Amino acid sequence: MTSLPAAPGGRGSGARCALTLLLAAALSIAVAEAALAHAVTLGDKGYIQEVSGPHLIAFLYLGAKHMVTGYDHILFLFGVIFFLYGMKQIATYVSLFAIGHSTTMLLGVWLDFGISSYVIDAIIGFSVVYKALDNLGAFRLWFGVQPSTKLATLLFGYLHGFGLASRIINYDISPDGLWPNLLAFSVGVEVGQLLALAAILVVMRYWRATPAFARQAYAVNVLMMTAGFALMGFQITGYFAAAQAVGDLT
Questions:
Q1: Which of 91-119 are b and which e, b meaning 16 or more Cβ less than 10 Å from the residue's Cβ?
Q2: What is the pLDDT of residues 184-225, one digit of tens each?
Q3: Which segments of 36-176 are extended strands (E)?
Q4: Is 26 within the bounds of a domain?
Q5: What average pLDDT does the chain have?
Q6: What is the pTM of this model?
Q7: Contacts of residue 208, Cβ cutoff 8 Å, sequence gap at least 6
Q8: How many whole angstroms separate alpha carbon 226 and alpha carbon 61?
Q9: Is residue 21 part of a domain?
Q10: Is residue 1 part of a domain?
Q11: How far apart are CA 158 and CA 100, in angstroms?
Q12: How far apart are CA 48 and CA 58, in angstroms?
């Protein structure tokens, strides 16, 4: 996969670095706030807990809404398609990601196997860091090898799916109509993913046509990596805070 050239230097590089750091700080704050909004809203959670029987349209909508508002998922996808130009390539990577998270989401709920939302969201944050480093060419520079981006996309898709499964398990969804609703939710997630992806591709198409793309792309991937670290730090802090709260109660 294409990667970025070395960081731009020369005249004005200091100013660009300073601007990048300022933008990174602002983005970190925004990401921390966004992480709070990633879960299903209280109203949607209440609906999921109260209904029974198949409600295909409702769960289709909830799945699409969850993906469109899932900032960490969208950020990872943004990194995945950053240097993909052909629609066949994009379809391949998006399909791998979809297969991964759909599989573990359905299996996780079926087997009642969930992972702490803090842990899985920290891993999702790490996936954003990984993809940004991949785009920056860091692995080839540091280790002299290029990991398989297709395999990484599939594996991170599995991990993202466990995040979805963990949330659904916590919502105590009724067993009456469970599988039709889960399948509708899964389809909704894919619809939401495609909608978000379409919007990203429209913006990317015009951005790539500008002469400043190569220079700006470096800063954007640094910002994306910073956002991933911010997500990781936010979730790890939340994990230990929750553990401390449980310890205080006992």
A1: eebbebbbebbbebbbebbeeeebbebbe
A2: 888 888 888 888 888 888 888 888 888 888 888 989 999 999
A3: none
A4: yes
A5: 78
A6: 0.75
A7: 85
A8: 31
A9: yes
A10: no
A11: 4
A12: 9
Number of domains in the chain: 1
Query: Is 18 within the bounds of a domain?
Result: yes
CB distance 153 to 96 below 8 Å: yes
Angle ∠(55,34,16) on CA atoms, nearest 5: 140
The dihedral through the CA atoms of 150, 153, 155, 157 has a sign that is negative
Write b or e for each residue in 15-44: b if 16 or more Cβ atoms lie within 10 A of its Cβ, otherwise e: ebeeebeeebeebbeebbebbeebbbeeeb
Rg for the chain, CA atoms, rounded: 19
- Secondary structure letter of residue 86 according to DSSP: S
Side-chain-side CA neighbours of residue 186 (13 Å): 23
- Residue written as token pair 């220079």: 215
pLDDT band at 20 (very low <50, low <70, confident <90, very high): very low
Q: Which domain holds residue 202?
A: 14-249
Nearest to 98 by CA among 122, 62, 63, 141: 63
Cα dihedral 171/177/70/90 (nearest 10) = 150
Predicted confidence (pLDDT) per residue in 43-82, tens digit:
666 667 677 788 888 888 888 887 777 777 788 888 888 8
